[in-house]
User: Fold this.
Amino acid sequence: MIPQQQPRLKSSFIYLANAVRDLTSNWETFALTLTPLALVAALCLMPDALNLQHELMRFFSSGVHNVGVREVQLIKEGPQANLPFSPWQTRLLHLIILLLTLGVNLVVLCALSRIRAGVRENNPLGEARAVYRRAWKLIGPFSWVFLLQVLTVIVGLVLLVIPGALAYIWLYFAQYAVVMDNQRSWPALLFSRELMRGRFFAVAMRIVVFLAVWSGFNSWTGGAFVLVSWTLGIIGAVTGFLWAGIFAADLLATCVGYATIAFFFAAGARLYEDLNQLRRARQELAPAPSLAPTEALGARPS
Assistant:
């Protein structure tokens, strides 16, 4: 009898390609669920952009064309009181953006979980409401698992860099386990570790590829945002503050950032699904527990 072949992990780029298909085939759901969060995040980013706009306008309106080290130092040492928004206000908004990003992670995973389960409402708006209802129920467990992840990784980094990196890889799928397998608290972290048993390096290589592509994509996005900000600064020196343009730039950058999060979470969901299949196959192939001597004797025919 030929033994059944176990499922195998695919390459990183196949997971990324499948993530593109998942997003494009369900773009209405992701657009409706992420747009409200992107709008709020763009409003939270506006004070930073307005402060930058103010500094750039002051720089370009000063008539300095040949910028030297001394001029740059004078600009940096300019009075902070003249900024439209104070540092404590921008820090508070940064905290809100961090919470919104955590919410984006939860909403995306809830949408992906419904896609994987084949559950869908009749229209995209109803599907978006269903995703938000499920995300609302999971805010507490999801936030707690995220906090445990962060604390575990920080402890590992305090000890040494390598334990922190290992902890990050081992706990990578804890958030997926909360949404897709209803795991809670520490069992979610242990479930993530269980998925990688026997194939840690294979999974780690795929996660590293995901993170490398993600960082490169974010670098391009950040560079484009800085370029747009400088362009707005030059135009603003002539025409004044461009509120609509600043908000549009913030909204565009936020939408791209959230779409990137959805893309890589979709790739991770594909990898998580394959690891779950391998875990179930490993459990099915595990040898049955041996009978005790008394049970073995009782099972003999007389």
